[in-house]
Every structure is written in structure tokens, then in C-alpha cells.
């Protein structure tokens, strides 16, 4: 999830060649990595590659305000670059600001109606119950070159789940899985629908199939744990949450679930 846009490689510029004189006195408390990146940008101000490195640096350190500020600076220099708007949308989404993420994707699509942007915006519309999601999904289905039927069905499913139509949502997710049985997100969302309906045994079966296909799917074990907890299977739930945490040591929800069960 973290690497939606790639961490750029610092090519053609050697960090060791940075001129530390470029760092002003008021930056003395700045981390060395940031100083090096800013020095390189000062030397090569037209390098979008270096700017992306700085944005990614802030992103990795969860300094989203600064990552967004640097992205906005890049946009101010080139407002018609859809790439910057895409990055801005990703940063806002990760920082739990769906409204600004949607606005940024809308701007990116105005510049370049790339299917990837359409899929991302369609998913955000769907999660917020915006009927534009269905319009986007239909458009993707009618555009063969996008090769996005699976994604279009997924968007439909998200929309129906968000608007309280779980049976329609499950049907859409089933159609996703029929097109690609490795599509773990569809298994997850179908499980969430079944869980919301209190169909815990059915939900477990869906996720057991998913982890059979991909045994490293941490969310699969987490959701099986949630279902087992509802079914009163405390020991099994603990095992499931523990496995999820072993697969992803930063899985906060799994940590919280174990803590609530008295497991440290």
C-alpha cells in the first residue's frame, strides 16, 4: 500500500557530491537525508525525479503535510502535469482526506483521462456512495482498451456495499473473482459484506479460499479472526490475528484485536 508511486532512484547525481554550503543556518536541525535531497534540488531545480524523491521521503516518514506542500509547489510550476495531481491525490487519500483526493483525481482526469486515474477515482466515488461510481464503471466496461472489466465490477461492488445493497455488492465481487480468482480485494470486500449481514460461517469460507490461493494474505487471516471472534471461537481468533500480525508486523487492527482479547 505504501508504494503507489515508485521510490525514484537518484540517478545521475551523487549524494556525496552535495555542496553543504547550500544549506542555510536555519536548516541546521534538518535531518541529513532531507538536507541532501534539498541540496540536490537546489543544484538541479528542474529535476522532477529529485522532487519525487523528496516527496517520497516525507511520505515514508508520514510527514504528509510537507509531502503535499512539495507536490503543490511542483503543481504551481506545471499545473497541466497530470502526474503531480495523481501524486497529490494519493497523498491526500493516505492522509485520510478523501475530499481532496477526489478533487485531485478529477483534475488529473481533466488533463489526461488515463484509465488508472478513472479506476482510482471511481473507487473513491464508490466508497463515498457517489452514483458517479456507476457511470465510471460503465465507462470502463465500454472501453476495451482499458482492459478493466474486473476493476469496473469491483467499483460497482464497492458502491453497492456503501449504499446498503450487500446482495448486489456480493454479486459484483463474485463476478470479479470469476474473472480473476487471485483478486484478493474482491474476497475481502465480499467477506466484509457477509460479516455485516452476520453470515460469519459463510465469510470464513470465502476467506479460507482466499488464503488457500495466497497464504501471505494478512487481511484474510484478520477477517477470519473477526468472524471466529463473533462465533465465540476465542482461541482460533487469537491464532488468526497472530498470523495476520506475523505477516504484517504493522497491522494495527490485528494488534488492537489481540489487545482487546487480552493478548500482548
Give start-end ranges of low-pLDDT stretches.
Answer: 1-26
Q: What overall geometry do the principal axes of the alpha carbons give?
A: globular
Helical run tally:
14
Class inferred from helices and paired strands:
mainly alpha
- In terms of DSSP E residues, the strand content is under 5%
Separation, N- and C-terminal Cα atoms? 26 Å
Instruction: Please write the string of helix (H) and strand (E) elements.
Output: HHHHHHHHHHHHHH
Percent in helix: 55-70%
Radius of gyration, Cα only, in angstroms? 22 Å
Which whole number gives the mean pLDDT? 90
Give the strand tally: 0
Query: How does the major sheet shape up?
Result: none
Amino acid at each position: 500500500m505504501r508504494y503507489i508511486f515508485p521510490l525514484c532512484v537518484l540517478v545521475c547525481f551523487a549524494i556525496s557530491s552535495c555542496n553543504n554550503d547550500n544549506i542555510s543556518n536555519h536548516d541546521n536541525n534538518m535531518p541529513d537525508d532531507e538536507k541532501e535531497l534539498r541540496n540536490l534540488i537546489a543544484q538541479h531545480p528542474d529535476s522532477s525525479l529529485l522532487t519525487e524523491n523528496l516527496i517520497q521521503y516525507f511520505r515514508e516518514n508520514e510527514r504528509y503535510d510537507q509531502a503535499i506542500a512539495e507536490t503543490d509547489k511542483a503543481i504551481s510550476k506545471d499545473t497541466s502535469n497530470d502526474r503531480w495531481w495523481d501524486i497529490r491525490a494519493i497523498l491526500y487519500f493516505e492522509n485520510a482526506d478523501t475530499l481532496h483526493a477526489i478533487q485531485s483525481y478529477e483534475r488529473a482526469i481533466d488533463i489526461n483521462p488515463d484509465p488508472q486515474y478513472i479506476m482510482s477515482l471511481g473507487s473513491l466515488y464508490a466508497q463515498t456512495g457517489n452514483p458517479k461510481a456507476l457511470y465510471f464503471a460503465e465507462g470502463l466496461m465500454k472501453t476495451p482498451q482499458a482492459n478493466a472489466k474486473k476493476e469496473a465490477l469491483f467499483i460497482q461492488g464497492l458502491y453497492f456495499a456503501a449504499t446498503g445493497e450487500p446482495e448486489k455488492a456480493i454479486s459484483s465481487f463474485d463476478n470479479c473473482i470469476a474473472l480473476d480468482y487471485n483478486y484478493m480485494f474482491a474476497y475481502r470486500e465480499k467477506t466484509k459484506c457477509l460479516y455485516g449481514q452476520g453470515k460469519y460461517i459463510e465469510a470464513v469460507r470465502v476467506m479460507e479460499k482466499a488464503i488457500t490461493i495466497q497464504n501471505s494474505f494478512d487481511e484474510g487471516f484478520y477477517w477470519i479472526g473477526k468472524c471466529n471472534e463473533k462465533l465465540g471461537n476465542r482461541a482460533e481468533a487469537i491464532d488468526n490475528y497472530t498470523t495476520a500480525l506475523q505477516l504484517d508486523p504493522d497491522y494495527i487492527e490485528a494488534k488492537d484485536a489481540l489487545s482487546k482479547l487480552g493478548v500482548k
